[in-house]
């Protein structure tokens, strides 16, 4: 059995069958469990001032609130990819810990 990146355990001799209701239910349960773990990590990270500071630095580094445009189109493409990672982090944080995100913004304005 092998672990997949999404936390699922698969049997290499039995491929996933999306037409099998039992397999779909098991896969759905595994994905929900993995998402719950990731949500808990995000909540813990956002529950401390140092965690919120780290998130703020990551969002700034990713250029979430900047334009990705550069004169070089390859640099623009790179910036867009970097910004996409930051936007994903921002979406997770605001979904899982909206009150803590507001605290992050308050702390940012105090600095």
List the helices and strands and how they pair.
Layout lengths: L1 E2 L5 E2 L10 H26 L2 H13 L11 H24 L1 H13 L1
Antiparallel strand pairs: 1-2
Helix pairs in contact: 2-3, 2-4, 3-4
Q: How much of the sequence is in beta strands? A: under 5%
- Number-wise, the strands total 2
What is the C-alpha radius of gyration, as a whole number of Å?
19 Å
Number of helices: 4
Descriptive notes:
- The chain is mainly alpha-helical and 111 residues long.
- The protein folds into two domains: 1-46, no CATH class; 49-111.
- 68% of the residues lie in helices and 4% in strands.
- Strands 1-2 form a two-stranded antiparallel sheet.
- Helix 3 crosses helix 4.
List the keywords.
two-stranded antiparallel sheet; about 110 residues; 4 helices; single chain; 2 strands; flat; mainly alpha; 2 domains
Brief synopsis:
This protein has 111 residues and is mainly alpha-helical. 68% of the residues lie in helices and 4% in strands.
């Amino acid at each position: 059995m092998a672990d997949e990146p999404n936390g699922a355990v698969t049997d290499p001799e039995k491929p996933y069958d999306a037409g099998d209701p039992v397999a779909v239910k098991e896969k759905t349960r595994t994905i929900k469990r993995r998402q719950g773990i990731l949500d808990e990590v995000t909540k813990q990270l956002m529950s401390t001032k140092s965690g919120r500071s780290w998130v703020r630095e990551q969002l700034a580094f990713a250029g979430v609130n900047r334009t990705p445009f550069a004169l070089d189109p390859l640099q623009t493409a790179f910036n867009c990819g970097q910004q996409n990672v930051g936007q994903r982090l921002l979406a997770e944080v605001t979904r899982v810990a909206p009150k803590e995100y507001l605290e992050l913004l308050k702390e940012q304005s105090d600095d």
